[in-house]
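Table S5 (text form). Sequence records supplied for joint modeling of the four-component complex.
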Amino acid sequence: MAKIATTVYEQIRTAILTGELSNSERLVEEDLAVSMGISRTPVREALRRLAAEGLVDVSPNRGARVAEWDVHDLREIFDLRSILESHACELATPRASAAEIEFLENVCFEMEELAKTDLSSETRLPALAARNRIFHGKIIEMSNSTRLGLLIETLIHVPIVMQTYKVYSPEALQRSLHHHREIVNAMKAGDEVWASSVMRAHVLAAREEILGQPDPE
Amino acid sequence: MAKIATTVYEQIRTAILTGELSNSERLVEEDLAVSMGISRTPVREALRRLAAEGLVDVSPNRGARVAEWDVHDLREIFDLRSILESHACELATPRASAAEIEFLENVCFEMEELAKTDLSSETRLPALAARNRIFHGKIIEMSNSTRLGLLIETLIHVPIVMQTYKVYSPEALQRSLHHHREIVNAMKAGDEVWASSVMRAHVLAAREEILGQPDPE
DNA sequence: TCAGGTGGACTTGTATACCATCTCGTACGA
DNA sequence: TCGTACGAGATGGTATACAAGTCCACCTGA
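The corresponding C-alpha coordinate record, covering 434 residues in total, follows.
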Protein backbone atom coordinates (compact mmCIF):
# COMPACT_ATOMS: atom_id res chain seq x y z
CA MET A 1 0.00 0.00 0.00
CA ALA A 2 1.27 3.41 -0.91
CA LYS A 3 1.72 5.54 2.15
CA ILE A 4 -1.58 7.03 3.17
CA ALA A 5 0.14 10.02 4.70
CA THR A 6 1.59 10.92 1.31
CA THR A 7 -1.79 10.62 -0.35
CA VAL A 8 -3.38 12.85 2.25
CA TYR A 9 -0.54 15.31 1.89
CA GLU A 10 -1.09 15.57 -1.84
CA GLN A 11 -4.83 15.90 -1.51
CA ILE A 12 -4.65 18.74 0.96
CA ARG A 13 -1.86 20.35 -1.00
CA THR A 14 -3.80 20.40 -4.26
CA ALA A 15 -6.92 21.50 -2.41
CA ILE A 16 -4.99 24.51 -1.18
CA LEU A 17 -3.32 25.23 -4.50
CA THR A 18 -6.54 25.09 -6.47
CA GLY A 19 -8.18 27.42 -4.00
CA GLU A 20 -10.63 24.73 -2.92
CA LEU A 21 -9.70 25.53 0.65
CA SER A 22 -10.09 29.21 1.26
CA ASN A 23 -7.55 31.38 2.99
CA SER A 24 -6.99 30.87 6.71
CA GLU A 25 -9.57 28.09 6.79
CA ARG A 26 -9.22 25.80 9.77
CA LEU A 27 -7.90 22.32 9.14
CA VAL A 28 -9.22 20.10 11.92
CA GLU A 29 -7.41 16.79 12.05
CA GLU A 30 -10.48 14.81 13.03
CA ASP A 31 -12.66 16.27 10.28
CA LEU A 32 -10.09 15.60 7.59
CA ALA A 33 -9.59 12.07 8.88
CA VAL A 34 -13.25 11.08 8.82
CA SER A 35 -13.86 12.78 5.49
CA MET A 36 -11.15 10.58 4.00
CA GLY A 37 -12.09 7.52 5.98
CA ILE A 38 -8.74 7.18 7.73
CA SER A 39 -7.31 7.82 11.17
CA ARG A 40 -5.82 11.05 12.46
CA THR A 41 -2.26 9.79 12.44
CA PRO A 42 -1.55 10.13 8.71
CA VAL A 43 -3.45 13.41 8.69
CA ARG A 44 -1.14 14.73 11.38
CA GLU A 45 1.93 13.75 9.42
CA ALA A 46 0.56 15.36 6.26
CA LEU A 47 -0.20 18.61 8.10
CA ARG A 48 3.30 18.71 9.58
CA ARG A 49 4.82 18.33 6.16
CA LEU A 50 2.63 21.09 4.78
CA ALA A 51 3.60 23.27 7.71
CA ALA A 52 7.28 22.66 7.01
CA GLU A 53 6.68 23.87 3.46
CA GLY A 54 4.83 26.92 4.65
CA LEU A 55 1.49 25.99 3.12
CA VAL A 56 -0.26 25.82 6.48
CA ASP A 57 0.32 27.54 9.81
CA VAL A 58 0.12 25.50 12.99
CA SER A 59 -0.15 26.89 16.52
CA PRO A 60 0.48 24.63 19.53
CA ASN A 61 -2.74 23.11 20.80
CA ARG A 62 -4.68 25.31 18.45
CA GLY A 63 -4.51 23.40 15.23
CA ALA A 64 -3.65 24.16 11.64
CA ARG A 65 -4.92 26.77 9.25
CA VAL A 66 -4.34 27.38 5.59
CA ALA A 67 -1.53 29.89 5.37
CA GLU A 68 -2.26 33.22 3.80
CA TRP A 69 -0.08 35.50 1.74
CA ASP A 70 -0.22 39.19 1.07
CA VAL A 71 1.34 41.30 -1.64
CA HIS A 72 4.54 41.63 0.34
CA ASP A 73 4.91 37.86 0.50
CA LEU A 74 4.42 37.52 -3.22
CA ARG A 75 6.98 40.23 -3.89
CA GLU A 76 9.49 38.38 -1.76
CA ILE A 77 8.80 35.14 -3.57
CA PHE A 78 9.28 36.61 -7.03
CA ASP A 79 12.43 38.43 -5.99
CA LEU A 80 13.94 35.25 -4.64
CA ARG A 81 12.80 33.24 -7.63
CA SER A 82 14.43 35.75 -9.96
CA ILE A 83 17.72 35.27 -8.15
CA LEU A 84 17.59 31.51 -7.79
CA GLU A 85 16.24 30.67 -11.22
CA SER A 86 18.74 32.92 -12.94
CA HIS A 87 21.44 31.15 -10.97
CA ALA A 88 20.04 27.86 -12.21
CA CYS A 89 20.41 29.19 -15.76
CA GLU A 90 23.98 30.16 -15.07
CA LEU A 91 24.81 26.68 -13.83
CA ALA A 92 22.84 24.92 -16.55
CA THR A 93 24.28 26.75 -19.54
CA PRO A 94 27.79 25.25 -19.58
CA ARG A 95 26.33 21.81 -18.87
CA ALA A 96 23.58 21.85 -21.48
CA SER A 97 23.68 18.96 -23.95
CA ALA A 98 22.33 19.17 -27.49
CA ALA A 99 19.48 16.88 -26.53
CA GLU A 100 18.51 19.08 -23.61
CA ILE A 101 18.55 22.19 -25.79
CA GLU A 102 16.34 20.42 -28.26
CA PHE A 103 13.96 19.42 -25.51
CA LEU A 104 13.65 23.03 -24.39
CA GLU A 105 13.11 24.17 -27.97
CA ASN A 106 10.31 21.66 -28.29
CA VAL A 107 8.62 23.02 -25.21
CA CYS A 108 8.96 26.53 -26.62
CA PHE A 109 7.40 25.41 -29.87
CA GLU A 110 4.48 23.73 -28.13
CA MET A 111 3.79 26.80 -26.06
CA GLU A 112 3.92 29.06 -29.11
CA GLU A 113 1.45 26.82 -30.93
CA LEU A 114 -0.83 26.80 -27.91
CA ALA A 115 -0.71 30.55 -27.74
CA LYS A 116 -1.91 30.78 -31.36
CA THR A 117 -4.92 28.56 -30.82
CA ASP A 118 -8.31 29.90 -30.02
CA LEU A 119 -9.30 27.29 -27.49
CA SER A 120 -11.27 28.37 -24.50
CA SER A 121 -9.06 29.38 -21.63
CA GLU A 122 -10.28 26.40 -19.62
CA THR A 123 -8.16 24.10 -21.72
CA ARG A 124 -5.49 26.45 -23.05
CA LEU A 125 -4.29 28.02 -19.85
CA PRO A 126 -3.68 24.81 -17.90
CA ALA A 127 -1.79 23.40 -20.89
CA LEU A 128 0.37 26.51 -21.05
CA ALA A 129 0.95 26.51 -17.32
CA ALA A 130 1.95 22.85 -17.37
CA ARG A 131 4.53 23.41 -20.12
CA ASN A 132 5.80 26.49 -18.38
CA ARG A 133 6.48 24.40 -15.30
CA ILE A 134 8.22 21.80 -17.46
CA PHE A 135 10.42 24.48 -19.03
CA HIS A 136 11.51 25.98 -15.74
CA GLY A 137 11.81 22.58 -14.09
CA LYS A 138 14.05 21.28 -16.86
CA ILE A 139 16.48 24.15 -16.48
CA ILE A 140 16.60 23.62 -12.74
CA GLU A 141 17.25 19.95 -13.31
CA MET A 142 20.02 20.82 -15.78
CA SER A 143 21.67 22.99 -13.15
CA ASN A 144 22.49 19.75 -11.34
CA SER A 145 22.07 21.32 -7.92
CA THR A 146 19.59 19.41 -5.83
CA ARG A 147 19.55 21.97 -3.08
CA LEU A 148 18.87 24.80 -5.50
CA GLY A 149 15.95 22.77 -6.81
CA LEU A 150 14.63 22.22 -3.33
CA LEU A 151 14.89 25.90 -2.44
CA ILE A 152 13.00 26.95 -5.55
CA GLU A 153 10.38 24.28 -4.95
CA THR A 154 9.59 25.67 -1.53
CA LEU A 155 8.97 29.06 -3.12
CA ILE A 156 6.74 27.96 -5.95
CA HIS A 157 3.76 26.42 -4.30
CA VAL A 158 1.87 29.53 -3.47
CA PRO A 159 -1.30 29.40 -5.56
CA ILE A 160 -0.89 32.62 -7.41
CA VAL A 161 2.59 31.66 -8.49
CA MET A 162 1.33 28.36 -9.87
CA GLN A 163 -1.37 30.04 -11.89
CA THR A 164 0.70 32.83 -13.31
CA TYR A 165 -0.77 32.73 -16.78
CA LYS A 166 -4.29 33.27 -15.55
CA VAL A 167 -3.77 36.97 -15.19
CA TYR A 168 -1.50 37.44 -18.20
CA SER A 169 -2.48 39.86 -20.92
CA PRO A 170 -1.88 38.69 -24.50
CA GLU A 171 1.13 41.01 -24.71
CA ALA A 172 2.59 39.66 -21.50
CA LEU A 173 2.13 36.11 -22.74
CA GLN A 174 3.97 36.93 -25.96
CA ARG A 175 6.80 38.53 -24.05
CA SER A 176 7.00 35.52 -21.79
CA LEU A 177 7.29 33.15 -24.75
CA HIS A 178 9.96 35.35 -26.34
CA HIS A 179 11.88 35.20 -23.09
CA HIS A 180 11.78 31.43 -23.19
CA ARG A 181 13.15 31.41 -26.73
CA GLU A 182 15.85 33.87 -25.83
CA ILE A 183 16.91 31.81 -22.83
CA VAL A 184 17.32 28.73 -25.00
CA ASN A 185 19.24 30.71 -27.59
CA ALA A 186 21.58 32.07 -24.95
CA MET A 187 22.16 28.58 -23.61
CA LYS A 188 22.82 27.28 -27.10
CA ALA A 189 25.39 30.03 -27.52
CA GLY A 190 26.97 28.95 -24.26
CA ASP A 191 26.55 32.43 -22.83
CA GLU A 192 25.56 31.95 -19.21
CA VAL A 193 25.54 35.67 -18.44
CA TRP A 194 23.05 36.26 -21.22
CA ALA A 195 20.94 33.27 -20.22
CA SER A 196 20.79 34.15 -16.56
CA SER A 197 20.04 37.80 -17.32
CA VAL A 198 17.07 36.91 -19.48
CA MET A 199 15.79 34.52 -16.83
CA ARG A 200 16.04 37.20 -14.20
CA ALA A 201 14.15 39.63 -16.40
CA HIS A 202 11.64 36.92 -17.19
CA VAL A 203 10.72 36.34 -13.55
CA LEU A 204 10.77 40.03 -12.65
CA ALA A 205 8.50 40.79 -15.58
CA ALA A 206 6.09 38.18 -14.28
CA ARG A 207 6.21 39.85 -10.90
CA GLU A 208 5.20 43.20 -12.31
CA GLU A 209 2.53 41.65 -14.47
CA ILE A 210 0.95 40.03 -11.42
CA LEU A 211 1.60 42.59 -8.73
CA GLY A 212 1.54 45.79 -10.68
CA GLN A 213 3.90 48.57 -9.78
CA PRO A 214 6.31 48.10 -6.86
CA ASP A 215 4.63 48.86 -3.59
CA PRO A 216 5.84 52.14 -2.08
CA GLU A 217 6.22 50.40 1.32
CA MET B 1 4.77 20.84 29.88
CA ALA B 2 6.43 21.99 26.72
CA LYS B 3 5.75 19.69 23.83
CA ILE B 4 7.75 16.51 24.13
CA ALA B 5 8.13 16.26 20.37
CA THR B 6 9.90 19.61 20.31
CA THR B 7 12.22 18.56 23.10
CA VAL B 8 13.10 15.37 21.29
CA TYR B 9 13.60 17.28 18.07
CA GLU B 10 16.06 19.66 19.70
CA GLN B 11 17.94 16.88 21.43
CA ILE B 12 18.46 14.89 18.26
CA ARG B 13 19.26 18.04 16.32
CA THR B 14 22.00 19.18 18.64
CA ALA B 15 23.31 15.64 18.86
CA ILE B 16 23.74 15.67 15.10
CA LEU B 17 25.19 19.17 14.91
CA THR B 18 27.75 18.55 17.61
CA GLY B 19 28.80 15.35 15.90
CA GLU B 20 27.61 13.26 18.82
CA LEU B 21 25.73 11.11 16.35
CA SER B 22 28.13 9.96 13.68
CA ASN B 23 27.39 10.12 10.00
CA SER B 24 24.75 7.76 8.60
CA GLU B 25 24.07 6.35 12.05
CA ARG B 26 20.75 4.60 12.32
CA LEU B 27 18.01 6.32 14.28
CA VAL B 28 15.63 3.61 15.49
CA GLU B 29 12.37 5.04 16.74
CA GLU B 30 11.90 2.43 19.42
CA ASP B 31 15.43 2.83 20.80
CA LEU B 32 15.18 6.61 20.94
CA ALA B 33 11.79 6.35 22.62
CA VAL B 34 12.87 4.02 25.41
CA SER B 35 16.16 5.87 25.96
CA MET B 36 14.16 9.03 26.61
CA GLY B 37 11.39 7.28 28.51
CA ILE B 38 8.64 8.30 26.10
CA SER B 39 6.53 6.67 23.43
CA ARG B 40 7.33 6.38 19.76
CA THR B 41 4.79 8.98 18.68
CA PRO B 42 6.73 12.15 19.52
CA VAL B 43 9.92 10.52 18.30
CA ARG B 44 8.28 9.95 14.95
CA GLU B 45 7.21 13.56 14.73
CA ALA B 46 10.67 14.79 15.62
CA LEU B 47 12.28 12.58 12.99
CA ARG B 48 9.89 13.83 10.34
CA ARG B 49 10.73 17.39 11.14
CA LEU B 50 14.42 16.66 10.93
CA ALA B 51 13.85 14.87 7.64
CA ALA B 52 12.02 17.89 6.26
CA GLU B 53 15.06 20.00 7.13
CA GLY B 54 17.39 17.55 5.50
CA LEU B 55 19.23 16.61 8.68
CA VAL B 56 18.18 12.97 8.49
CA ASP B 57 17.35 10.70 5.59
CA VAL B 58 14.38 8.38 5.85
CA SER B 59 13.76 5.45 3.57
CA PRO B 60 10.37 3.78 3.59
CA ASN B 61 10.33 0.76 5.86
CA ARG B 62 14.04 1.11 6.44
CA GLY B 63 14.13 3.76 9.06
CA ALA B 64 15.94 7.05 9.56
CA ARG B 65 19.63 7.73 9.38
CA VAL B 66 21.72 10.78 10.06
CA ALA B 67 22.15 12.49 6.71
CA GLU B 68 25.63 12.75 5.28
CA TRP B 69 27.14 15.34 3.03
CA ASP B 70 29.99 15.17 0.58
CA VAL B 71 32.19 17.89 -0.88
CA HIS B 72 29.73 18.50 -3.67
CA ASP B 73 26.94 19.18 -1.18
CA LEU B 74 29.08 21.63 0.74
CA ARG B 75 30.03 23.43 -2.46
CA GLU B 76 26.38 23.80 -3.34
CA ILE B 77 25.58 25.11 0.10
CA PHE B 78 28.29 27.76 0.08
CA ASP B 79 27.42 28.83 -3.46
CA LEU B 80 23.79 29.33 -2.49
CA ARG B 81 24.72 31.04 0.74
CA SER B 82 26.94 33.46 -1.13
CA ILE B 83 24.02 34.42 -3.34
CA LEU B 84 21.36 34.62 -0.66
CA GLU B 85 23.40 36.33 2.03
CA SER B 86 24.68 38.93 -0.38
CA HIS B 87 21.09 39.55 -1.37
CA ALA B 88 20.26 39.99 2.30
CA CYS B 89 23.00 42.64 2.48
CA GLU B 90 21.55 44.39 -0.53
CA LEU B 91 18.12 44.54 1.06
CA ALA B 92 19.43 45.43 4.50
CA THR B 93 21.66 48.33 3.48
CA PRO B 94 19.01 50.92 2.59
CA ARG B 95 17.00 49.92 5.65
CA ALA B 96 19.81 49.98 8.19
CA SER B 97 19.23 52.24 11.17
CA ALA B 98 22.02 53.89 13.13
CA ALA B 99 21.28 51.61 16.07
CA GLU B 100 21.59 48.52 13.91
CA ILE B 101 24.88 49.68 12.45
CA GLU B 102 26.17 50.29 15.94
CA PHE B 103 25.06 46.81 16.98
CA LEU B 104 26.99 45.26 14.10
CA GLU B 105 30.04 47.34 14.94
CA ASN B 106 29.88 46.08 18.48
CA VAL B 107 29.84 42.49 17.29
CA CYS B 108 32.85 43.25 15.07
CA PHE B 109 34.69 44.73 18.01
CA GLU B 110 33.96 41.75 20.24
CA MET B 111 35.16 39.33 17.61
CA GLU B 112 38.36 41.31 17.06
CA GLU B 113 39.06 41.30 20.78
CA LEU B 114 38.40 37.57 20.95
CA ALA B 115 40.78 36.98 18.07
CA LYS B 116 43.55 38.78 19.95
CA THR B 117 43.20 36.69 23.08
CA ASP B 118 45.24 33.63 23.73
CA LEU B 119 42.52 31.51 25.23
CA SER B 120 42.47 27.86 24.44
CA SER B 121 40.47 27.11 21.36
CA GLU B 122 37.90 25.25 23.42
CA THR B 123 36.55 28.53 24.71
CA ARG B 124 37.64 30.95 22.00
CA LEU B 125 36.26 29.22 18.93
CA PRO B 126 32.73 28.68 20.20
CA ALA B 127 32.59 32.31 21.27
CA LEU B 128 33.74 33.43 17.84
CA ALA B 129 31.33 31.12 16.08
CA ALA B 130 28.44 32.35 18.21
CA ARG B 131 29.16 35.99 17.39
CA ASN B 132 29.61 35.13 13.75
CA ARG B 133 26.13 33.67 13.72
CA ILE B 134 24.81 36.77 15.43
CA PHE B 135 26.46 38.99 12.83
CA HIS B 136 25.05 37.12 9.87
CA GLY B 137 21.70 36.61 11.54
CA LYS B 138 21.34 40.31 12.27
CA ILE B 139 21.89 41.24 8.65
CA ILE B 140 19.33 38.68 7.54
CA GLU B 141 16.90 40.06 10.07
CA MET B 142 17.58 43.58 8.80
CA SER B 143 16.74 42.47 5.26
CA ASN B 144 13.13 42.17 6.48
CA SER B 145 12.45 39.17 4.26
CA THR B 146 11.17 36.26 6.27
CA ARG B 147 11.34 33.84 3.37
CA LEU B 148 14.93 34.76 2.62
CA GLY B 149 15.71 34.05 6.25
CA LEU B 150 13.98 30.70 6.09
CA LEU B 151 15.82 29.70 2.93
CA ILE B 152 19.20 30.55 4.43
CA GLU B 153 18.30 28.74 7.62
CA THR B 154 17.66 25.52 5.78
CA LEU B 155 21.13 25.77 4.27
CA ILE B 156 23.04 26.50 7.44
CA HIS B 157 22.50 23.55 9.68
CA VAL B 158 25.04 21.24 8.19
CA PRO B 159 27.62 20.74 10.93
CA ILE B 160 30.65 21.87 9.01
CA VAL B 161 28.95 25.12 8.09
CA MET B 162 28.13 25.74 11.72
CA GLN B 163 31.68 25.16 12.80
CA THR B 164 33.39 27.15 10.11
CA TYR B 165 36.00 28.71 12.34
CA LYS B 166 37.34 25.37 13.48
CA VAL B 167 39.36 24.92 10.33
CA TYR B 168 40.33 28.55 9.84
CA SER B 169 43.96 29.53 9.65
CA PRO B 170 44.94 32.69 11.56
CA GLU B 171 45.19 34.54 8.26
CA ALA B 172 41.75 33.40 7.17
CA LEU B 173 40.32 34.48 10.49
CA GLN B 174 41.82 37.94 10.07
CA ARG B 175 40.44 38.23 6.57
CA SER B 176 37.05 37.14 7.78
CA LEU B 177 37.02 39.83 10.47
CA HIS B 178 38.13 42.45 7.98
CA HIS B 179 35.26 41.42 5.73
CA HIS B 180 32.83 41.96 8.57
CA ARG B 181 34.18 45.45 9.17
CA GLU B 182 34.03 46.25 5.48
CA ILE B 183 30.44 45.07 5.25
CA VAL B 184 29.42 47.36 8.09
CA ASN B 185 31.31 50.26 6.53
CA ALA B 186 29.59 49.69 3.20
CA MET B 187 26.22 49.62 4.91
CA LYS B 188 27.03 52.78 6.82
CA ALA B 189 27.89 54.41 3.50
CA GLY B 190 24.54 53.24 2.15
CA ASP B 191 26.25 51.44 -0.72
CA GLU B 192 24.35 48.19 -1.18
CA VAL B 193 26.41 47.09 -4.16
CA TRP B 194 29.58 47.36 -2.11
CA ALA B 195 28.02 45.64 0.88
CA SER B 196 26.58 42.75 -1.06
CA SER B 197 29.82 42.28 -3.00
CA VAL B 198 31.86 42.00 0.16
CA MET B 199 29.37 39.56 1.62
CA ARG B 200 29.55 37.42 -1.48
CA ALA B 201 33.32 37.42 -1.34
CA HIS B 202 33.16 36.70 2.38
CA VAL B 203 31.15 33.51 1.92
CA LEU B 204 33.06 32.36 -1.15
CA ALA B 205 36.34 32.86 0.71
CA ALA B 206 34.99 30.67 3.49
CA ARG B 207 34.13 28.06 0.91
CA GLU B 208 37.65 27.92 -0.42
CA GLU B 209 39.13 27.92 3.05
CA ILE B 210 37.06 24.89 3.97
CA LEU B 211 36.94 22.99 0.71
CA GLY B 212 40.24 23.93 -0.83
CA GLN B 213 40.47 24.49 -4.54
CA PRO B 214 37.34 24.05 -6.68
CA ASP B 215 36.82 20.41 -7.52
CA PRO B 216 37.64 19.70 -11.18
CA GLU B 217 34.39 17.71 -11.52
C1' DT C 1 -25.39 46.09 33.37
C1' DC C 2 -20.86 44.64 33.30
C1' DA C 3 -16.69 42.12 34.91
C1' DG C 4 -14.70 38.13 36.21
C1' DG C 5 -14.70 33.40 37.04
C1' DT C 6 -16.14 28.67 36.04
C1' DG C 7 -17.66 24.71 33.47
C1' DG C 8 -17.98 22.17 29.40
C1' DA C 9 -17.21 21.10 24.65
C1' DC C 10 -13.79 20.69 21.40
C1' DT C 11 -9.13 19.95 19.71
C1' DT C 12 -4.54 18.74 19.93
C1' DG C 13 -0.80 15.87 22.04
C1' DT C 14 0.77 11.35 23.83
C1' DA C 15 0.61 6.39 24.72
C1' DT C 16 -0.28 1.81 23.38
C1' DA C 17 -1.83 -2.01 20.74
C1' DC C 18 -2.14 -4.05 16.33
C1' DC C 19 -1.07 -4.84 11.46
C1' DA C 20 1.71 -4.64 7.15
C1' DT C 21 6.10 -4.77 5.23
C1' DC C 22 10.92 -5.33 4.75
C1' DT C 23 15.36 -7.64 5.76
C1' DC C 24 18.22 -11.25 6.39
C1' DG C 25 19.41 -15.90 7.31
C1' DT C 26 18.83 -20.67 6.50
C1' DA C 27 17.58 -24.67 4.19
C1' DC C 28 16.40 -27.13 0.23
C1' DG C 29 16.80 -28.18 -4.59
C1' DA C 30 19.00 -27.90 -9.06
C1' DT D 1 28.23 -24.97 -5.05
C1' DC D 2 25.07 -21.58 -6.21
C1' DG D 3 20.53 -19.79 -6.36
C1' DT D 4 15.98 -19.38 -4.82
C1' DA D 5 12.29 -19.69 -1.68
C1' DC D 6 10.50 -19.63 2.71
C1' DG D 7 10.12 -17.86 7.38
C1' DA D 8 11.38 -15.55 11.67
C1' DG D 9 12.48 -11.29 13.63
C1' DA D 10 12.54 -6.54 13.43
C1' DT D 11 10.84 -2.13 11.85
C1' DG D 12 7.67 1.17 10.11
C1' DG D 13 2.67 2.45 9.57
C1' DT D 14 -2.05 2.79 11.30
C1' DA D 15 -5.86 2.90 14.55
C1' DT D 16 -7.76 3.74 18.89
C1' DA D 17 -7.84 5.27 23.61
C1' DC D 18 -6.74 8.63 26.87
C1' DA D 19 -4.76 13.00 28.87
C1' DA D 20 -4.10 17.83 28.70
C1' DG D 21 -4.76 22.26 26.99
C1' DT D 22 -7.66 26.03 24.81
C1' DC D 23 -11.64 28.64 23.81
C1' DC D 24 -16.19 30.19 24.45
C1' DA D 25 -20.38 30.85 26.57
C1' DC D 26 -22.94 31.26 30.48
C1' DC D 27 -23.63 32.35 35.12
C1' DT D 28 -22.99 34.85 39.30
C1' DG D 29 -22.09 38.74 42.07
C1' DA D 30 -21.19 43.50 42.62
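Note: The radius of gyration of chain A is 19 Å.
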